[in-house]
Design goal:
The protein is 29% helix and 42% strand. It is of the alpha+beta class. Strands 1-2-3-4-5 form a five-stranded mixed beta sheet.
Length: 118
């Protein structure tokens, strides 16, 4: 299996895992625009009155002896994700009261959700 295929498989697994953890509605998968790409865009229903718009980057490491998946997100990638989110927000018509940037990591057969990672 190629690294691209593994990445797509892990993204699908990550979304399923996240859906089991928190109450979300998927707005986009692999959203692309001129500024770049983000793995997931979601609405997270925190409470009946509170809705967040969430941009999620999924990172996996099959061999994480030297660096964890969260450490692979460099400042350049964060800037790119923010630009993508700005582009998405120009067309967003939902009712979210706030925006959040999360990271979902997979290493050593375990998922971890980093809420508000940056």
């Amino acid at each position: 299996m190629s690294t691209t295929e593994i990445g797509k498989k892990r993204e699908a697994e990550g979304l399923l895992w996240l859906q089991l953890q928190i109450r979300i509605r998927v707005l986009a998968k692999n959203y692309r625009c001129k500024s770049g790409e983000i793995d997931l865009i979601l609405e997270h229903q925190i409470s009946p009155e509170e809705l967040d718009l969430v941009f999620v980057e999924i990172r996996t490491r099959e061999n994480s002896d030297f660096i964890s998946p969260i450490e692979t997100i460099r400042p350049h990638k964060i800037r790119k994700i923010r630009r993508v989110s700005e582009q998405f927000l120009t067309t967003y018509k939902g009712g979210a009261g706030s925006v959040r940037f999360d990271v979902l990591t997979f290493e050593k057969d375990r998922w971890e959700h980093w809420r508000g990672a940056f």
